[in-house]
Amino acid sequence: MKPRLLVDENFPAPSTVILRAAGYEVLSVAESASSTEDPDVLAWAVEQECWIATFDRDYGELIFRRGLAPPSCVLYLRLQRYRPETPGHRLVELLKQHVAIAGNFVVIEDDGVRMRPLVPAK
Predict the structure, then answer these.
(1) Quick one: fold of 4-117?
(2) What is the DSSP letter of 73?
(3) What is the pTM assigned to this prediction?
(4) Mapping DSSP to helix (H, G, I), strand (E, B) and coil, where does residue 46 land?
(5) Which of these, 30, 67, 79, 115, has the minimum number of CB atoms within 10 Å of its CB?
């Protein structure tokens, strides 16, 4: 089963179209709740059981430093220069492996992907 996605307000609209065309259910902050604060977006993702896709590094701060409840996965894109459709294509490729990335804060950079568990191992 494909994960549901919540794309943050800074996520390019052409990439949202690409994700939907690939069969993902995508909620969009820009389309549904523009100007929503990050803690509220985080709570919305948890409530709706969505993974967050964002270019905003504040979600790491909210989860790891402030201890707010995380969603099942955060997809944080740190791409330097890209066309508006590039994030969508990168995520479609990455999400094919979704079982391996669930439960992680995933940092997607130009040259690779890093993951950190959302819940520390005991």
Answers:
(1) Rossmann fold (3.40.50)
(2) -
(3) 0.93
(4) helix
(5) 67
